[in-house]
Automatic annotation (TrEMBL):
One of its GO terms (molecular function) is phosphoric ester hydrolase activity. Belongs to the bacterial phospholipase C family. InterPro entries: Alkaline_phosphatase_core_sf, Phosphoesterase. Keywords: Hydrolase. It comes from Zostera marina (Eelgrass). Gene3D superfamilies: Alkaline Phosphatase, subunit A. This is Non specific phospholipase C. GO terms for biological process: phospholipid catabolic process.
Amino acid sequence: MQLRAEPKGWLINQCMMQKTGEEASMITTVVVLVMENRSFDHMVGWMKQLNPDINGVDGTEFNLMNTSDPTSGKVFFKDRSEYVDPDPGHSIQAIYEQVYGVKYSPESSVIAPNQPATMSGFAQQAESQQKGMSATVMNGFLPDAVPVYKKLVSEFALCDRWFASVPSSTQPNRSYVHSATSHGLESNVKKKLMEGLPQKTIFDSLHESGHSFGIYYQDPPSTLFYRNLRKLKYISKFHPFDLEFKKHCKQGKLPNYTVVEQRFFDLKIAPGNDDHPSHDVSQGQKLVKEVYEALRSSPQWNKVLFIITYDEHGGFYDHVPTPIDVPNPDGINGPAPFNFKFDRLGVRVPTILVSPWIQAGTVLHGPNGPYQTSEYEHSSIPATVKKIFKLGDFLTKRDEWAGTFEHLLLTRSSPRTDCPITLPSPMKWRDTVAKEDGMLSELQAELVHLGASLNGDCRKFKDMMYPDVLVKSMTVKEGSKYMKDALKTFLDECERCRRNGMDESEVVVVVNPDKTASKKKSFLKMIRAWIVCRTN
């Protein structure tokens, strides 16, 4: 790969490019919030009304209802998004059809990656999933409908060329955010996720170099899908968001690398705030507002970089073709039947960068290197963190290739003093209460599977407790309780291991979970579900 000769995006003054790493060290705290399942055009595409430099939408974008029939009718992209239910398709097969306009098949998948993405199949794929869903995916929010983002885009930086790392679902993409690889995970494979992904993470790199990190969770944290984070030495890095985030902000004690995790389960008393359909995006807006305002009032504010992004597009339309010619991070290809080579990116997603060192109204287009084909994607986060904190080696070939954005912090000689102290309050879109008695979403089921790994149930019940059986008849409310109880069991075991002098570099594994009455009830319920599963 050759270095890009000319920048394809935001132009940077050469004197800024020559500033030293010492000057870039004004950032001592990077805060990362990864929202769920929304595309760029869907969430912020209409922000082009505020700033024509944004590569957004103007209403002329469309998909045919049938990509093979020019007379099938056009579905134009509109500005009427509100509450979305049900969840659009975002499997690797669905995304293939959305991006290339043809249904996935083993034969077509060999050809298509070498062809330009047409972004023409969103309406067709959605309509095949459910009649009328084409209108759902071909719609976006007006700026006033997402007022928190409207204010942040006006006051800080919006990247309009940031892609999901994999054209697939949640967990493969979330894994890239902190490790620049999914270790061959091309879809949400239950067994691999329960065992824990084994790759080195940015958390490890920070720890090795003497920098701090912390994970502030509302529901039990999805970062525990990284097996390394189950090591005893890292358990103290996990903090309940509601109890400690604002307190640490106020005290100026946020770690160098701070991750905020949302409520993934949608309950009446605590609605989901991750933006995953069918959750109300107003709850996600409230979370972003809460995090921003806590950071803004912190004594650390002048040294903060706050990154808001989305794991993947969730099946919603975006008009920018997905890039190809992307390096495989670690030489690991996905298994059959897809045999994905990790050589192309997913659909474009919103990414907002917030810091008093960023000029108001900045639009960040494509990166200026390090390679001619480099793009902004989730691996850009560990790549940029590596530069900010002067860490050692890259994690994989992907973060070595990914564009970085530390130059945004070098355009000023001092931090801004005019950053808003508060953000607007969002409007509520959902008229009904949370469907806590409904069945689990795929993401929620994955978190329950994680819980079964943390609390030892996956080892306790062995062959009788297939992962699918565990969640088959479980409601959202039950799944939330199961996961919270599982995390408590795991943390209790961590404390026991610490008291017994366990090597802190070892992964904590619950081998013999307590046989409490509640667990016996859960066991009987799983047996009943297993019988139902076997008879269906």
